[in-house]
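Model it.
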Amino acid sequence: MPLGWIKSLKIYADRRMPLMLLLGFVSGLPFLLVSSTLSLWLKDVGVSLAAIGLFSLVKAPYSFKWLFSPLIDQVSLPLLSRLGRRRSWAVLLQILLIISLLVMSLLKPQVSPMLFAFWVLLAALFSASQDIVLDAYRIERFKPKEQAAGVAVFVLGYRIGTIFSGAGALFLAEFWDWSIVYQIMACGVVVGLAAILVAKEPDNNKPSKPKTLRATIVNAVVKPFTDFMKRDKWAVILLFIFFYRMSDAYVAPMAYPFFDDMGFSKIQIASIIKIYGVIATIVGTVIGGAVVARIGLVKALVVCGFLQGLSNLVYVGQAYAGDNAQVLMLNIFIENISGGMGTAAFVAYLSALCNKKYTATQYALLSSFMGAARDIFAATSGLVAAAVSWQCFFIITTIMALPGLLLLWYLIKVKAIKN
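Modeled.
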C-alpha cells in the first residue's frame, strides 16, 4: 500500500475514535428496540397485526427531530450544565432513555397497549434527541478534513449497536422473557453514558444567553436557518443534498421485492444482506473516511458519487443470473461498499456545512432534507418497477445519479464547495 494511503489511515488511530465507536453504539442501539425488535415482541404476546402496524407511528420523533433540535442546541441545563452543553444533554437523555426502556420492560403490551405505546414513544423521543446531541458532538470534535473518518467509526459503532439490539435481542429472547431482554438492552445504554462522562466537551461550546423571550426564540429557531441562507448558492446546495444519494434511495424500497422475484428465500436474503451487507458497509465507510483524508472532500464526493451510481448496475447482472447466491453475495458486497463510501463522504460534507454555533439544529435540518429523497421521492419507485423490467429499472436508478453529480460539478465550478 502506498505510504500516502497508510498515512491517511492513521486518522483511525486517533484517541477520539474509541469514543466515537461507543457513541455510535449507543446511538444505534435504541432504534430497533422501538421498531423491528419491538414488532416481534408484540407478535409473540399476541398483539394483532393491525395494532403492530399502528405501533410504527411511535417512530415519528426520528422524522421530526429538526423541530426540537433548536431547544437542544441553545438551552443550557441547570445543574448538569457544568458538564458542558453537549455532554449535559447527552447525560440527561441517556438517563431518560434507560428509564423509558426499563419501564417498557415492566409493562405488558397485550394488557395495557396505550400505556405501553406511550413509553415506547418516549423512548423514541429520547433516542431521536440523543441522536441530535451526538451528531453535534461528533461534528464539533473533528476538523472538516477529519469528519469522514469520524463518521466511519461512528457508523461502525451504530451498526454494532443495531446488531446488539436486533440479532442479539432475538438470540436472548430464545432463552429469556422479553422483559428481561429489554432490561439487558437498557444496560447497554450505560456504555454510552460512561463514555460521555469521561469525554471532553468541544472547545468554545457555550450558547449565548439572550435577554428576552423574543431574542431567545430568534437565536434558537430563526438564526440557524438565516445563517445557512447566507451561504453562497444555498438553494443549489439543498438541491444537491436532495439528489446526491437519490440512486441508492430509489433502489432501497424495491430491493427485497427484487430478490424475492429472483427466487431467493427469506433466509437467504436475511443472511446474505445481514452478513455480507453489514461487513461491506463497514468496510466502505472506513475506506470513505480514508479517501476523504487522502484526496480531500471535493474529489471524494465526485469519486463516491460515481461509484454509488454505477454500483446499481450490478443488479442488472443479478437479474440475468437469477437466484445465484454467489452472484448476490458479490453484488451486495460491491453495492454496500460503494454505499458506505458515499455515506462517509456525504455525511462529512453535511457536517462541514454546519456553523458550530448552531450545529445540532443545522445538522438535524440537513439530514432531514437528505431523508426526504428516501421518504418522499423514492415512494414512486414501485410504480416505475411495475412499468418496466428489472434490468431497465436498475439502469434508470443509475441514471438518477446524474442530477446530483451535475449539481456537484456546478458547486465546484462556482467554488461553493471547499475541502
